[in-house]
Write a structure and sequence with these properties.
The N and C termini lie far apart (37 Å). The chain has one domain. The strands form two sheets. Strands 2-3-4 form a three-stranded antiparallel beta sheet, covered by helices on one side. It has two helices and five strands. Strand 3 and strand 4 form a beta hairpin.
Length: 103
Amino acid sequence: MAFTGHENHTIPTADGAALTKEFRKRFSTQPKGYFFSKDTLQSMLDTTNSVGIRFYFGSDTDGKLKLVFCACAANENDIYRDIVGDGGNICPPACGVANSLNS
């Protein structure tokens, strides 16, 4: 099945809150999330033939969960020869105001 770039991956906020709550319960020593700038994500989307972004789970040498991401083509292949993303701002401490997704 090919990607179109128009797939709907949204869920209700309550469902997202339940998922992040379960994650925090099971993995309390892991980061809650990462922030990636609009410019970084847009650069992935602007990559030739990109229809979206794929995120991979990774780990640093201290065992902390990381996200590595790259552009993805309609044929479902990664586009990784130009750039891949990592190094987002970790939450905590960069979590913003407490809400149902991060608290």
